[in-house]
Here is the input.
Amino acid sequence: MYGILTKRQAEVLRYYMLGYKQEEIAKILKISQPRVSKILKSAFNKIRLAEETIKYYRELKKLSNAKKKGLKEIILD
Here is the structure.
């Protein structure tokens, strides 16, 4: 339902992306500001890893397509 993020991570990230400060998010969700910070850090790490995975997948796809076309040497970005 929330993809790679937990429900709490998605909730905190939504408030953050709407411009709320970490202290405000903490008050709204009744959690500590350090907890909000930890949740955001974890969410951004998951997003970064997902982006890297997508990039890697695209490179593999290029390699596969080039192999199908008979190319012997391929330089990956």
The radius of gyration is 19 Å. The chain has three helices and no strands. The chain has a mean pLDDT of 88. The longest helix spans residues 33-68.
